[in-house]
Design goal:
The protein is an alpha/beta fold. The chain contains 13 helices and 8 strands. Helix 2 packs across helix 4, helix 10 packs across helix 11 and helix 12 runs antiparallel to helix 13. Bound molecules: adenosine-5'-diphosphate and magnesium ion.
Length: about 300
């Protein structure tokens, strides 16, 4: 009886070993097991799971982004570890997923109105370091953050410059940095806000308008790209700026236009020329913000 048992056991071990050695021919498999530092006798009991883990690890090596993640659970990698005399497999979160999770945690502090996702995730870590034009802006950010975190006050920024130079990106990075410290804010693609408000007349207009007006920090992105009307200027922009001046709420702008150019734009609507009203808006912007320029090559792809 014992002899039969021994024979079967030996045979089984032989099979396990054969399977293991077969799998070991695969490059990603042997890379994985070589890094584990676990004795072969134990490893060979887990060949098929190790194969699965090796495939996932290989997928991670060629990873481009979370959306195209090929692993069974997106953002996780099936990973072995030794525990006593066993190998335990678990789904470990990858660094991209961790980053995304951390982001989601602080992004709840920011309300977005049509800001592209890629820009919403901007951070100082991923910053281009090439353009000298950014240095004064970064210095300004630093002093703004210090002051704002101490006093909850501070002068915003009117950042103008060429299309695609990274204006929105820079301000998103600032807002994200502050959101990590619990600061609530609102980033609004301004032309889209106007469309949104228009379509919510009679329903959620007041709620949307108030949320933007009262946001502790506000970015009005791409001001001047909208279709200027007396309504957008006198009923939306004007009151938002007026309120924020009175309440001393930091307000930021990006634009492809200088303040002088914006004044002209705001002055001429389809039916009339009202330079006084335009001037008043510009005065408010000047009170609310410092003006800086960021010109650089277009960084938009395609
Ligand atoms: P603008 O608002 O000036 O038109 P964007 O902020 O939209 O320009 O930037 C254009 C593109 O370049 C975006 O896709 C953005 O992700 C990228 N980008 C801009 N600035 C940086 C930066 N400092 N670091 C990394 N990517 C950037
Ligand atoms: Mg922009």
């Amino acid at each position: 009886m014992k002899a039969i048992q021994n024979y079967l056991k030996k045979n089984e071990t032989g099979n396990l070993k054969r399977n293991y050695m077969d799998a070991y021919q695969n490059e990603s498999f042997h890379h994985l097991v070589d890094t584990l530092n676990i004795e072969e006798n134990l490893l060979m009991k887990y060949t098929s799971q190790l194969e699965e883990a090796a495939v996932e690890k290989e997928n991670c090596k060629h990873c481009r982004n979370l959306v195209t993640c090929k692993n069974k659970m997106k953002g996780y990698c099936y990973t072995p570890r030794k525990e006593k005399q066993r190998i335990i497999f678990s789904y470990e979160m990858c660094s991209r997923k961790e980053k995304q999770e951390a982001l989601l945690a602080y992004q709840k502090n920011i309300h977005y109105f049509r800001i592209p996702k890629q820009i919403a995730m901007a951070s100082f870590q991923d910053f281009y370091k090439d353009s000298k034009g950014r240095v004064p802006i970064l210095k300004y950010f630093q002093s703004f953050m210090e002051e704002y975190l101490k006093t909850k006050k501070g002068k915003g920024l009117y950042l103008c410059g060429s299309f695609g130079s990274g204006k929105t990106y820079m301000l998103a990075a600032l807002f994200n940095e502050l959101a990590k410290k619990g600061v609530e804010s609102c980033m609004v693609y301004y032309p889209e806000l106007l469309r949104l408000l228009k379509s919510s007349f009679g329903s959620s207009y007041e709620e949307k308008f108030t949320m933007v007006k009262k946001a502790p920090l506000l970015l009005l992105d791409d001001i001047g790209a909208e279709n200027v009307t007396p309504w957008s200027r006198d009923e939306v922009l004007g009151p938002i700026l007026q309120y924020r001046m009175e309440e001393e709420l930091p307000t930021f702008f990006t634009s492809n236009f200088t303040l002088e150019e914006l004044e002209k734009l705001l002055g001429e609507t389809k039916n009339s020329i009202e330079m006084v009203k335009a001037r008043r808006i510009i005065e408010r912007i000047k009170q609310l913000s410092e003006s800086m320029v960021l010109n650089s090559k277009n960084r938009r792809e395609g």
